[in-house]
């Protein structure tokens, strides 16, 4: 992998756009799970007898969603470090 050309503003903008694509699916899925988990936890009180099950499912969605988002951050950081290393 070669080091990105960061000589002008357009090249920096292209590299930032490239970085935004790394781990995008994981970030979006994680964000969706966090939102769905928060809604499930919020609405579990009015779910009647199924409330505790929905609440636990909501907590599981929150945990897995945050794990996905952290994994995406890790992937992007690792990609950036690899790109910034000089390859001879």
Nutshell version of this structure?
With 88 residues, the protein is mostly helical. Helix content is 76%, strand content 0%. The protein has one domain (23-84).
What does this structure look like?
The structure is a single chain. The chain has 88 residues and is mainly α. It has one domain (23-84). The protein is built from 3 helices and no strands. It is elongated and about 60 Å long. The mean pLDDT is 91.
How do the strands and helices of this protein lay out in sequence?
Blueprint: H1 9-21, H2 24-43, H3 51-84
Helix pairs in contact: 2-3
Q: What is the radius of gyration computed over CA atoms, rounded to a whole number of angstroms?
A: 19 Å
- The overall average pLDDT, rounded, is 91
SSE pattern: HHH
Sheet/helix structural class: mainly alpha
Taken from the alpha-carbon principal axes, the silhouette is elongated
| Measured distance between first and last alpha carbons | 10 Å
Number of DSSP helices?
Answer: 3
Percent helix, as a range, is: over 70%
Number of domains: 1
Largest sheet: none
Low-confidence stretches: none
Task: List its salient traits.
88 residues, mainly alpha, 3 helices, 76% helix, elongated
């Amino acid at each position: 992998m070669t080091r990105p050309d960061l000589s002008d503003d357009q090249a920096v903008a292209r590299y930032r756009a490239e970085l935004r694509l790394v781990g995008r699916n994981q970030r979006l899925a994680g964000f969706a799970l966090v939102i769905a988990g928060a809604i499930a936890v919020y609405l579990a009180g009015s779910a009647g007898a199924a409330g505790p099950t929905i609440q636990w499912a909501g907590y599981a969605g929150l945990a897995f969603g945050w794990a996905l988002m952290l994994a995406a951050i890790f992937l992007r950081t690792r990609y950036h470090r690899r790109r910034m290393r000089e390859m001879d």
